[in-house]
Amino acid sequence: MSPLQRTNNLLAVVNPSTQDYLDLKKLISNLNRAYYIESKSVIDDELYDALFKQLIAWEEKLPLGDEQLADSPSQKLTENLTNSFHKVRHNHPMLSLSNAFDDSDLKRFTEDMGAQQTDYVIEPKFDGVSIAVHYENDVFVQAITRGNGETGEDVTNNVKTLRNLPLSLPLSRFGISRAEFRGEIYIRKAAFDQLNKSRLEEGLDAFQNSRNTASGSLRLKDAQTVRSRPLEVVFFQCVHCDNQDPAKKLDKDHNKQMELLYSIGLPTTHTYIKLSNTVESLQEVVDYWKNKREAFPIGIDGLVIKVNNTSLHSHIGSTGHHPKWATAFKFTAASVESVLEAVDFQVGRTGVLTPVAKIQPAPLHGVIVRNISLHNQDFIDRLNLHIGDTLLVVRAGDVIPYIKDSWSTSKRRGRRVEFPKECPACYSPIVREEDSAAWLCPNAHCQAKKLEQLQYFVSKTALDIDGFGREIMKLFYEKGFVTSRVDVFSLYERREGLVSLEGLGPKSIDKLIASIESSRKQSLWRQIVSLGIPLVGPQTAKAIIKHLKLRTLEEVSLLTLDQLVEIHDVGEKVSQSIVDFSNDSNSCQELKELSACFDHGDASNPEIVSSELLASKRVVITGSFDFASRNEIKEFVEMHGGVVSGSVSKNTSVVFVGDKAGTKADKARNLGVPILETQDLSAWIQNNNIPTILKIEDSE
Ligand SMILES: [Zn+2]
Asked: How far is the CA of 419 from the centre of ligand 1 (A)?
């Protein structure tokens, strides 16, 4: 009999029997399942409503027991249901998942599975709120939130109202009397928009995002209101099934379990599951979802990758925090919301005060963001920032997060963020130069400024002294071991005192002293950069060395404005900054002392040799080299007037090919671009033995 015929027959019944009631209940359950799970509309909405009215009328009329009513679709409509939210301990802890953010994380995850060949299932991770749902004797009996993973809250009556949750499920067919499933409660994108539209029409505030709305809805006291929210559930795990009969055991494969449960009416991830057995095919599925994600009707914030064979799960095990047989691949968040908690004003090495926002920790692009630069006063004013404001944090480029927007959500706004009037370290009144957005501490002896300069002096950008981190410099500075740059080079004389400092043993001190000693050989451009002269970075330092043929650091004090502005790559502002620095009598003395701390290479030092050999030549560097880093080779190319470019074309002059070079080397060969391999290149860089191919080109 077709559903339509059955509908008409049941609607025609005048004096219903209990059997008629059971038939009606079953018909409505089937129609619900077709509609909410298989997205099929079998009969008209009007007929459906008539059936439902009939069901409620019969339930009032017939002498039915609690058991018969328990799985009735009318339970979803029961009035005055409230929730106790009492705490319930999970039978099995609801662990969270480890996170993967890129291909290398995926690789690590599969490698951790060991040598065994494993099939993986990949499912979209719906952006919602986790739920544990229990069935007993084919009837839905309880729903518990995740809570802290050990204990959650009972939200049974609220979850009961979910339109696609089956209140009965024929699990007994498989010998199952008790089962627990884990799932996610979510709101579809279109439904969320519609919900907000009607809220705005009613003069209510719009909801910020669907996940918080889903989670907030579950915690509403009144199930009636919950029913008005377009919540749905999807199940992704069978945690426990008590079937004893080996003949009826569920398949051990996760995807087959999901398929079976789906076929009997449970909304599972079955239709979205993809299988994979290599890290490469995992990456393909990740790419597939990355592309599909925007247009997908449900918000997904990542993918869940699991070992398909569930019988391996207990063998693979879990840490206290997450199972090792599954991981969540998180899609890169383009932005995240957070809250402004405080603003610190930090004094930099040039005296510039940088406001730094302390925000509520927010995950963004695989890191937890806690501090964000607010740049300067103009930036703060433009955002009209107040403490407690909500911030929209986005990532700029690949690493640096910044605040794109901010707004207040509360009526009583926190205090406005104001720049201090004086330096937070030395209390000198701060000054703002004309045409500059920055406020400065003008005090040359400001302690905060001095420390920053010293920290910069030994940092990776400058002298690159291995193991000399910011904290160590701070300690040495506070204890009086280092008060000027020159002091760094006499630290070895104070070894005994350093060793007695808390947290530093003789081993680490000796290592540090060795690093300091080898930094005496640092190239001249790094020595210049380490002075921390405003606006002077590696490019400027190298240009000055090249054009003015500098040999020692001390010579910086002799530079004149006329000389500097002549140099093509050095602007007027930069030149002035250098002259300001060297005109200072303190700097003069310091340059002299500092210069004496460095070993001065002879003229054959390759970093000092410069030529026009590569003038206006485009050089591509590919592969790795054992005698020098790619960056050093790049510097070398630039010292000889060349330009390093990233890709090979017919305009490329020469390609430097190292070990494990990829397609760029092949492309160069195909295009007939000259190639210089490791051996010739190292002979040139280390012994100034200019390779033939360049000489020939030169003579042309
Ligand atoms: Zn100061």
From this structure: 14
